[in-house]
Q: What sequence folds into this?
């Protein structure tokens, strides 16, 4: 056969496949009606696995590809059934009741890691101008303050453009399951600073947060410094200012330099000129502004082959752009993981809401973490 003849045969087969696909989806809609009448769940994992096993057995050398094809067909069928049945009632109610703007009265308290002059302080002040910022030593303390009601909101860093994720914060997000009600990228410019009179040649110990040290690794590698991790960049600057030694320095912000009376020995020492950190605002209640453009979720997955691929493929089927995926071990479980996911979208889009509701009904430990507007801070 010529190539043209083969292509014509493929076109004929594709036409048959399309017709059969439409018939299959029509059947899936009928299945949804029966399940609604009998109050049955959409997902029947046992039946799906039986079908996949049978397909693999009959497909011979194409077993793997056939399983992907039929898995996708079943995912599409379930999505249609979820849409027809309008599942995810709890999630729909939560989203429907969420206000469009933050309620932050005059006495509102904002929890922030570090001390005055930290990058988190800059971010918190930009999110909440003229509000009282309460400082806490550790990220855990910020989450605990929001949990107890001591603070109404918390501001924490989650990711840096060059040093990657702030893992401790993602672990806390997955532990507390607070809502993210805002996010923004803050440009980060690091300075090596010491007490007045110190000289760069005399510095032998440098203190900073692990993220700050990682973001300035190239500069640090060129010197013979002893590197010491500290709880926060600004806290490191404060500690250096309180020392009697001229041989220690901190990597911190210009604000921290000014706040604690230090002098800059070297400026803009970060590895990347466009260095920035993403900060989020956490709260116990959701807030979904009309122009919200980022959605965050977390969930675990069943122990079945291809479960992560199939879950992520459902976002692709809806044309949704994934912007972040993070996996973290589930405490006290061997080699089982929570997944954190960010993607672009708005829950007021019916297709997006339908997808979230279907995931909430099917995935273990599913939590909707918010739909919010992501901005840039100067």
A:
């Amino acid at each position: 056969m010529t190539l043209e003849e083969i292509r014509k045969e493929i076109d004929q087969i594709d036409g048959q496949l399309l017709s059969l696909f439409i018939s299959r989806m029509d059947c899936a809609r009928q299945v949804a009606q029966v399940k609604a009448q009998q109050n049955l769940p959409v997902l029947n994992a046992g039946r799906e696995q039986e079908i996949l096993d049978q397909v693999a057995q009959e497909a011979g050398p194409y077993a793997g590809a056939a399983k992907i094809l039929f898995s996708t067909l079943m995912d599409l069928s379930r999505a249609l059934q979820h849409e027809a049945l309008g599942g995810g009632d709890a999630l729909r109610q939560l989203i429907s009741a969420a206000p469009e703007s933050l309620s932050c009265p005059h006495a509102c308290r904002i929890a922030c890691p570090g001390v005055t002059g930290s990058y988190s302080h800059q971010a918190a002040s930009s999110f909440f101008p003229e509000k009282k910022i309460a400082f806490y030593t550790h990220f855990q303390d910020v989450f605990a303050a929001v949990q107890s009601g001591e603070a109404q909101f918390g501001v924490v860093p989650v990711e840096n453009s060059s040093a990657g994720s702030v893992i401790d914060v993602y672990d806390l997000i997955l532990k507390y399951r607070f809502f993210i009600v805002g996010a923004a990228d803050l440009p980060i410019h690091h300075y090596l600073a010491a007490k007045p009179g110190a000289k760069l040649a005399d510095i032998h110990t440098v203190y900073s947060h692990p993220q700050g040290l990682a973001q300035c690794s190239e500069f640090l590698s060129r010197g013979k410094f002893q590197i010491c991790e500290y709880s926060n960049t600004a806290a490191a600057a404060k500690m250096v200012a309180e020392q009697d030694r001229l041989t220690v320095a901190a990597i911190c912000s210009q604000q921290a330099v000014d706040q604690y009376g230090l002098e800059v020995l070297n400026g803009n020492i970060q590895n990347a000129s466009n260095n920035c950190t993403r900060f989020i605002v956490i709260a116990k209640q959701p807030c979904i502004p009309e122009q919200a453009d980022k959605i965050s979720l977390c969930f675990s997955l069943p122990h079945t082959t291809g479960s992560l691929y199939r879950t992520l493929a459902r976002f692709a089927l809806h044309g949704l752009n994934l912007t972040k995926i993070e996996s973290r071990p589930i405490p006290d479980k061997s080699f089982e993981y929570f997944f954190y996911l960010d993607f672009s979208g708005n829950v007021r889009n019916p297709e997006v809401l339908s997808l979230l509701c279907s995931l909430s009904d099917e995935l273990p430990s599913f939590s909707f973490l918010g739909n919010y507007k992501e901005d840039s801070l100067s």
The first helix runs from residue 3 to 38. DSSP finds 13 helices and 16 strands in the chain. The chain has a mean pLDDT of 93. The longest strand covers residues 179-187.
